[in-house]
From TrEMBL:
Keyword tRNA-binding carried by entry: no
Tagged with keyword Transmembrane: no
Gene3D superfamilies: PPM-type phosphatase domain
UniProt protein name: Integrin-linked kinase-associated serine/threonine phosphatase 2C
Lineage: Eukaryota, Metazoa, Chordata, Craniata, Vertebrata
Matches recorded under Pfam families: PP2C
Gene source species: Geotrypetes seraphini
Alphabetized SMART domains for the sequence: PP2Cc
Coiled coil: none
Length: 315
């Protein structure tokens, strides 16, 4: 009887391992590249976080999940403290709140986890900022991508952006798929919320000063309707997807999302980059693409801090 039970137990473990292996076999591998430029600003207020694999930190995983990754960019204003705090703490709060073990409706739970993690990160920063003498007035945008197997969950505040390069099956040309929505005080819903809270929008800014209507920090504007509730989108990766671009608005002052995607593709496929007899590795080509894109944004006149983070989707 004991042997029979052990046999069944071992068989169950083998079946479970085989199931995990088959799931992992179909999961796209991700490789990330980043470059930064301070531009003409006095200091660098952008921050970013790259975690190619946070699977171990999120145990026990739900039965349907094999791999987790996280990528984010933060564009600070009024200082670099809010962006650095978010870069160091947002993912830790997400990891703590991610669904563990046996769960149902994982999509709903992941979205709730992201909203709660943004709220907690903001509350802790604001508490710390208000206790300083004088109080910190830093704020920051946030655009993060949590990858659950082959599903992207994109959460954002403010005007940093996430864009997916997806090839059109018929034309085989790259297209730019927007994964995030900007939060600008001139947008109707955003303006209505700000006015309802007793604030106003002048010259396209909250109280004539703040350019975004959602952010981390910015304690002095929270009573005016500036919130830290992210927009969340879900996107399923396909075999037609090549890379995800995360960037702060310093890049998009010089490039449209479509232009940025086309520029990266042309860099990666550019034969001139293949110097010598040996072709450059994929790593080297994507690194070069990030650098060339940031340099071109500066050349085109973007004086802002620039952060370009590209996540290559390997098939």
């Amino acid at each position: 009887m004991g042997k029979e039970k052990r046999g069944k137990c071992n068989q169950n473990k083998r079946t479970e391992a085989e199931s995990l292996w088959k799931r992992a076999e179909g999961i796209f591998q991700l490789k990330s590249y980043v470059t930064e430029r301070q531009g003409e600003r006095e200091d660098m207020q952008d921050s970013h976080t790259i975690l190619n694999d946070i699977t171990e930190e999120c145990q026990p995983l739900p039965a349907t999940v094999t791999r987790l990754s996280y990528f984010a960019v933060f564009d600070g204003h009024g200082g670099c403290r809010a962006s650095r705090f978010a870069a160091q703490n947002l993912h830790q709060n997400i990891i703590k709140k991610l669904p563990k073990g046996e769960v149902s409706n994982i999509e709903k739970l992941v979205k709730r986890c992201l909203v709660d993690a943004f709220k907690q990160t903001d509350e802790v920063f604001l508490k710390h900022a208000s206790s300083q003498k004088p109080a910190w007035k830093d704020g920051s945008t946030a655009t993060c991508v949590l990858v659950v197997d082959n599903t992207l969950y994109i959460a954002n505040l403010g005007d940093s952006r996430a864009v997916l390069c997806r090839y059109n099956e018929e034309s085989q040309k790259p297209t730019a798929l927007m994964l995030s929505r900007e939060h600008n005080p001139t947008q109707y819903e955003e303006r209505m919320r700000i006015q309802k809270a007793g604030g106003n929008v002048r010259d396209g800014r909250v109280l004539g000063v703040l350019e975004v209507s959602r952010s981390f920090g910015d304690g002095q504007y929270k009573r005016c309707g500036v919130i830290c509730t992210p927009d969340i989108k879900r996107c399923q990766l396909t075999h037609n997807d090549r890379f995800i671009l995360l960037a702060c608005d310093g890049l998009f002052k010089a490039f449209t999302p479509e232009e940025a995607v086309t520029f990266i593709v042309s860099c990666v496929e550019d034969e001139k980059v293949q110097t010598g007899e040996v072709k450059l590795s994929t790593d080297a080509r994507y690194e070069a693409a990030c650098n060339r894109l940031a340099n071109e944004a500066v050349r085109r006149g973007s004086a802002d801090n620039i952060t370009v983070l590209v996540v290559h989707i390997e098939h």
